[in-house]
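Sequence in, structure out. First:
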Amino acid sequence: MITKESKQVPSSIMMVRPVRFGYNAETAVTNAFQVQDTGESAEQIQEKALEEFLSARDKLREEGVKVVEFVDTSEPHTPDSIFPNNWISFHDDGKVVLYPMCAENRRTERRKEFIDSLVEEYGFSVSEVIDYSDKEAEGVFLEGTGSVIFDYVNMIAYANYSPRTDKALFEEVCDRLGFKPFGFTSVDKAGKDIYHANVLMCLGDDFAVVCEESIRDEKERKALRDSLEKTGHEVVSITMDQMYSFAGNMLEVCNERGHRYLVMSQCAYDSLDDQQLETLAKYAKLLPLDVSTIEEKGGGSIRCMMAGVNLPKA
């Protein structure tokens, strides 16, 4: 079991328990991964999603991963609140960043009391809260660690430009936080912009999972691989079909003993071949979790459900 400490691998994660999870028509405009009609009632969908959430939370805790759980409220209705990584990011110098969200009904997911609770109840230290939510009025969006993949060790930030990921704001955030920006474009099977970088890419401490096939520009594709390899990451390339099974949507975490886990959905795990699984297992214990209802209705997977709490302790 690998126990090396790293700024890249959070030992605490924030999750939000859903109360009225469901298909979000507002986000479906830019998210090709959502499926609208499966003939189930809103109550049935929420019940299944809650079951999947609780099972995932419990399995993470069984492995010793610190899960800070907050519970959503029924009003205002926030069908995507189960994906907190899109509105917040935490940094090891104590900075917390709040991000502008594209869908109007996702903007009320931002909850200051969650930050207060991390400090008052869980003993984390916050030095500054940087709030970019006023950019929404300008139609400018950047959706947290969905849009931006931070390399906390090498201080590089990766982003896939899309209607939900504004280039100028990405560069502004990088400048404020001290990261070097690395932007690129990628497309889905229909040739549309992929909405978030963390759908096609996962960055661990010593490895990276990337759907290189989705990056059409050969120079961008090569530059991305070069950047990842130069910073010591073994690149595991996934296919477009594997990306659609959420194989890019993973997060490397660790428990209080420093044991590492690569958290992915069961769907993602099942899509990977033996060689890919063997390569990833060199770096962390693979932890597949069934979140199929959440994937189908929300268009996001297990990584979107976890916001890494990289804050220092008080």
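Second:
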Amino acid sequence: WVKQGTGPILATADSNVAVDNLLEGLLELGVKAVRIGQPVKVRAQLRSATVRARVEEHPLQEEVRELLGLQENLQRRLSTFKGKEKGLAHRDLKMGWKAIRALETSMSDDVLDGAEVICSTCIGVGHQILGQRKFSNILIDEATQAIEPATWVPIMRHCRRLVLVGDHRQLPPTVISRRAEQDGLRRSLFERMIDVGMTPTMLKTQYRMHPVIAEYPSARYYDNQLENGVSADEREAPAGFLWPDWNAPVAFVPIDGAEELAVDGKSRVNRDEAGWVVKIVEQLLEAGDLQPSDIGVVSPYNGQVQLLTDLFDGNGILAGEGDEEARGLEIRSIDGYQGREKEVIVLSTVRANDDGEVGFLSDHRRLNVAITRPRRGLIVVGNSDTLRHDGDWEGWLEWVRDRKLEAWHVLQSY
């Protein structure tokens, strides 16, 4: 589209992280791209490409500063005026602010007019900064993670050519309301288009995972169609963990711990698994091959996420609230990690009971998301007896066994 020169392109996604990834890739390719949105929600190294940052560097800023100086001076003198003179001063203040707003709008329009691609979250496209702008070409990344109403926000900008990018074999949008979910809000526009007969085009080359990590999801979920755009040498197994096979950086650490209800009485925790996760992460970091920001700790249950956060808290490797993703260890739910990637993922599955209940771990899309986040290493901590009651987990565990990737030895080494 950029090469065709068909006018400004709108590139959107459901999350700020995904929009940042789009922006970063475009800038690396030399595309003139800008990002709308609050700078605090934009990755630090990309903030210079936000509209606000570009506006601050605009030549008209000098004129704005002069007007602001005049406004401040007039405001200070306002109390000394009386009668008609005071009324005229109020009029001048009003006109001054109007002139400043006009300049700010002019600068924003200038920045947007100079861009080949404008990047934003789907909801952010509704911001007044875009005014009545129309976009013939629109791309929506993470399209399977966005509720349909959100995707219509960019589409309503007079879209004529639309590309939806997503994976309907991974998790759908997060919807809190049970009734809204039952009424169909959890079905994305991407899925609805497939349901009515549209055939998606599959992008077959993956550039994230070590080829062995990609092996099972390719076979189970993508009909063995995934091709590897990276080699094993480019995704070397990290030091600090006793991998069963150093040429296949996947491990299942079998724990016989028991699950219990979390403090809120709704979620679940597994203290034995949490303890082992802490040991594994500490050993990975001690080896010096990885930084805290390279590791993602993942669990399906928010209760376990909170327990792990409490255990890691105070040791200096956690990312603070609202921090950059590059600052520290991130502990999130599986759903919260969709669309993300890390060098190593440590997954705590939590469920361990005599009844073989796996809860919403039985959603194959959640397993697919969990095991496709890492680039160089995947470590799963769990109770195999419980997990085997689910078909998808049984399949993955059989693959692990066939590959001889069970890490019993780890339990004696730490």
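Remark: The radius of gyration is 26 Å.
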